[in-house]
Amino acid sequence: MTTRTRGFLRDNGLGLAFGIGFLLALAGQAIAGYAEFNNQLTTEGLAQVGFGEYLMSSDFAVDVTENWQSEYLQFFLYITATVWLLQRGSPESKKMHKAGRESDQDQQVGQYAHRNSPRWAGAGGPRQALYSHSLGLVMGTIFVLSWLAQSISGVAAYNEEQLRRLQAPTSWDSYIGSADFWSRTLQNWQSELLAVASMAILSVYLRQRGSPESKPVGAAHTSTGVEG
Fold this sequence. Notes:
- The protein is mainly alpha-helical.
- It has helices at residues 3-11, 13-43, 51-55, 58-81, 104-107, 119-122, 125-132, 134-164, 172-175, 179-205.
- Helix 4 packs across helix 10 (179-205).
- The chain is elongated.
């Protein structure tokens, strides 16, 4: 392995590890979902489908997208809410006196941008405003798109099940008001919100040495916005 390759792996280890983990988990979900889907078809006295056909099915799509939209909702809310909301003692919170958008000097924008700052950070007007909210905007957009994809694939999967039962299909606008759609949605939202609340509160009192998601082991419980 060359020095350049080792340097690339070191500099991108977090993204690569989680990216590979995502692909492995998605593959495992596809295999397990395929087996479960065919078991359900067999129980109903219907012919089984091939693996490729299952991957293109609405059943697989809705299972994937309903998890994606809840994850991106979690990050969107966390990114935007932590601008104003604080948690004393948590490394997940800003310092107590920094609630809000902060000054241009604190954010290193406009005349306070450095030589190596992103180009739009030093620009004025709409470009700086857009870049100043780009992370939240992208996360929010992905959430909305994945939620839309969940609703479209969800109504397709729901209608396939209705047809197998010889019942009438439903429209998209009727489906998004249905118990099936909101059950799928809210069971994911509640778990994501619980996880964020637990992380914010438990990190006040508990530590993980060397992790940027934790305070230093010896930091006081009241220390806020301090990373280990």
